[in-house]
Amino acid sequence: MSSENKPWAGRFTEATDAFVEAFTASIEFDKRLAPYDIQGSIAHATMLVRIGILNEKEGRAIIEGLEGILDDIERGDFHWAVELEDVHMNIEARLIDRIGDAGKKLHTGRSRNDQVATDIRLFLRAEIDTITEELIRLKIALIDLAEREADTIMPGLTHLQVAQPITFGHHMMAWHDMLNRDCGRLSDCRKRVNIMPLGAAALAGTSYPLDRALTAGLLGFSHPATNSLDAVSDRDFAIEFAACASLIMMHLSRFSEELILWISGQFGFIDLPDAFCTGSSIMPQKKNPDVPELVRGKAGRVFGALFALLTLMKSQPLAYNKDNQEDKEPLFDTVDTLKKCLRAFADMMPHVRPNRKAMVKAAKKGFATATDLADYLVRKGVAFRDAHEIVGKAVRLGVETKRDLSEISLPELQKLSPIIASDVFEVLTLEGSVASRDLIGGTAPKRVREAARLARRDLERSGKP
Ligand code: ARG
After folding, report:
1. 26 ligand 1 Cβ < 6 A
2. Closest CA to 60 of 111, 105, 97
3. CB 433: neighbour CB atoms within 10 A?
4. Which of 104, 248, 263, 273 has the largest count of CB atoms under 10 Å?
5. 113 pocket-lining for ligand 1 (C-beta < 6 Å)
6. 155: alpha, beta or left, given left = phi > 0 and alpha = psi -120 to 50?
7. 193, 126 Cβ separation under 8 angstroms
């Protein structure tokens, strides 16, 4: 296309090179910002009418024209032209086609620089709200599981080795607490997303007496950005979101890893419904945990997007540079990946069924109550270090004779320490051990139920149960 058709063609005498035209265009990916671009333009036009720069008739024509364009786009009846470079110029050109001269006035006091920054912020704000809803759905699934499995004993691991008995409910609430921090981070990030660039124009502000507070109010932004240079060039909010997203994906990758281990034949701690697994084309016996594996794998692309955005902004001089067009693909990919992974988890977790027998059996294998025996000795007056030594000997006896601590007889234990009495077996059972961790944050079933109750109450209080 010759450059005359482009909105900025005035000072050009030669046509754009065809490759350069395609290379510099963003329409392929930024067209998904169309609803936000139109929302921003309607607010801008409404404000221009209020301050008398557009008359009522022009304002109405622009707004109706834009609404019609949105309908066309939603119906799939819109031709996106590469020669018109991006979503902003495509929509503006169509508006002028539709309504004539009034359409040429929409861009008064505005630049694509403040326009694109506004569009991304509107887009991201909406996506943060959707993502938060998915996080809440997942948190509820975990709270439900925690309540249902508050008494279910499993081995708690350190170094991937049996450490102390815990409850499955406690483990689910650990995941819940990680996601709870993620929700807090997203809501904090949203505050910095929700600031309006419009009025910054190209970089220096504009000579028109725009009512920026009015436009901000119309778009639900908390306030206009306070510096025009920063407003058009800032992408901190996108980086901050990518960092929040990376932490969420890191958490999901940890959950995934545990689910993958637990579903394996070696652990056998849980069963995942067939709907969330797939088979092997060669090994008929296989039921693979593809969903958690894929989520674990997808963490990588989200971390990559965070680095892409950081690197994009590194050393960029003020104010807008074309580099910034590169913010969209990593941001969109992060949003899409995160939403899909959260959805997969929120759909899957309500169907996870723990295999209680297998978990108890595993908890019994690793001398999980050794610390309880040491604590028992301390309560009877033995110094902790001496107690540690005595229990170490009991464990060695267990290893040599292939017995759990609870299976060693009282006379044998008394040989190691005469202070041990028959009440020792209360602490050597798995139930006694978990019940004794009865403090804030502890694994006692009573505490797990309490933690789940408080988490549910917080969700209700935030109005998002
Ligand atoms: N497509 C551009 C972007 O995504 C819009 C802003 C273009 N501004 C400019 N001065 N070339 O960043």
Report:
1. yes
2. 105
3. 26
4. 248
5. yes
6. beta
7. no
Q: Is the pTM of this model over 0.85?
A: yes
Do residue 330 and residue 387 come from a single domain? no
User: CA-CA distance, 224 to 203, in Å (whole number)?
Assistant: 14
Q: Coil, strand, or helix at residue 304?
A: helix
148-184 confidence digits (pLDDT tens): 999 999 999 999 999 999 999 999 999 999 999 999 9
Domain hosting residue 94, numbered range:
3-108
Q: Is 299:253 a contact under the CB 8 Å cutoff?
A: yes
Q: Which amino acid belongs to residue 186?
A: L
Cα 31 to chain centroid, rounded:
24
Band of pLDDT at residue 1, cut at 50, 70 and 90: very low
Residue-wise pLDDT for 42-84, tens only, equals: 999 999 999 999 999 999 999 999 999 999 999 999 999 999 9
Number of domains within the chain: 3
User: Ligand 1, from 26, 27, 28: best to mutate by most atoms within 8 Å of Cβ?
Assistant: 26
In a domain, 215, yes or no: no
In terms of domains, do 311 and 421 share one?
no
Cis before residue 319, ω within 30 degrees of 0?
yes
Q: Do both 345 and 261 map to the same domain?
A: yes
Beta bridge partners of 157: 162
Whether 95 is covered by a domain: the verdict is yes
Contact 368, 158 (CB under 8 A): no
Instruction: Provide the pLDDT confidence category of residue 136 given band limits of 50, 70 and 90.
Output: very high
- In angstroms, rounded to a whole number, what is the distance separating the alpha carbons of residues 326 and 84? 18
Beta strand pairing call for 161-167 and 153-158: antiparallel
For residue 226, the SS3 value is coil
